[in-house]
Amino acid sequence: MTVTIANSKLSVNDIAKVRGQLLRWYDSYTRDIPWRANEGSIPAPYHIWLSEIMCQQTTVQAVKPYYEKFLQRWPSVHDLANARQEDVMAAWAGLGYYARARNLHKCAKVVAEDLGGVFPATQEQLKKLPGIGDYTAAAIAAIAFNRPATVVDGNVERVVARFFAVEEPLPTVKPKLKALAAQFYNDFTTRPGDLAQSLMDLGAEICIPKAPRCSLCPLQAACQARKQGITKQLPRKIKAKTRPQKYGHIYWITNDQEQVLFHQRPEQGLLGGMLGLPTTDWNEDSTSLTHPEYINIPTPLHIQVQHTFTHFDLKLDLFEATLKAKLPVKDIKLCWLCPMSTGDKLPSVFKKAHKILVSPNKQNLEVAS
Ligand code: SF4
Q1: How far is ligand 1, taken at its centre, from the CA of residue 159, in Å?
Q2: Count of the separate structural domains present in the chain
Q3: Are residues 204 and 266 in the same domain?
Q4: What is the pLDDT of residues 274-291, one digit of tens each?
Q5: For labelling alongside 77, which of 158, 163, 250, 346 has CA 20 to 30 A away?
C-alpha cells in the first residue's frame, strides 16, 4: 500500500522507517524542558495545557520561567481558576499576546467548575474550551493523552517542507504541509505524543531555520531538500509587508505621596486587560496626538521608547505631568500605585518606559529601544 499526497509518496514501510528514526533519536536525546514527563511517566494534562498555551508564538526559552512561576503559584487548575484575573494578567506580563492569559483563566474556570478539574482527552472536546484551537488541541491530545493527532507547529512545518522539498511558500502552503505531516502521524497509536515531540524537537534543535544541522539529523538519508542542496532556501515565505510605523505619548503622572497614575487597559484590544501607563492613541500620524484632558500641560522628557509589535512598530515619547484637580474621565480605569512595586506587572512596552522613568538619571538618557 502506498500513501500518495500531492506528488510526495511514502510507502507504509517508509513511514515506519521514519517513525523509528525519529523515536530512536528522541529517546537518545534529552531536551531540558520542565513540562516534559520523565520516561515511563504520564504528563499531567494541566502542565501540558499550560505549556502549550504559553508556547504559542513564544520560544521555549522565554516560556520556562513563566511556566515555573505559574506552577509554583497555582499548582492545580483549581488554584488557577480561583485566582483573580488581574493577578493572572500581572503574572503573564512580559510574555505578550495577552488574549492568551485572559483565555487561560477562562479555560481554567470551565475545567475546574464545569468539568470537575478534568481536561477532556479528545481534540473535538478540547477545541470547545476557551483559547484552544486546532494545533493546541492536537498537541494536548497527543502529548497528555497519547491519542493519535496531527501536531504541526512552525518547527514541524519547516522539517516537513525540507523533508519533502516543498517549494511553495508559507503561509499558503500550510494545508499541504499538514497533509504531508499527517502521513507520519496517521493511525500511529503506540507513542503519538513522543512522535509529535520528536518532530517538534527536531525542528527546534536540528532542522533550525538558517543553518540546519543535517549531519546530526536522523532523517538525513531520505531528506529531499538535502539531496537537492536547497535546505537553506526552504521553507520559502511570501515576502512580508513592511510594518507601519505608529507614534504615541506616555505620561508619568505623580502625586504628592510619590505614587504614579496607572491605567487598566480595556478588556478588548491590544494589551487588553493589562496594567499600563496612561497613553494617547497610537497613530501613524504623529501630529494628530493630543494630550489627555485630565492633565495639566505636560513636560516633554525628550526620551523615546521604541517597541515592535507583530503588526506595527511603535515610537512613544515620554512626558511628565500632573493631574488637574480631579479626574473628569469615568470610562477609563485609572489608579494610583507605588511605581517601584509595579514594573513586573507591566507588558514589555510599558516596562521599557517604566524602567527609564524610575531611573534617577533619566534626564541624561536620550533614546531607549
Ligand atoms: S536533513 Fe537537514 S534539512 Fe533535512 S530534515 Fe534533517 S536537518 Fe532538516
Answers
A1: 7
A2: 2
A3: no
A4: 999 999 999 999 989 999
A5: 346
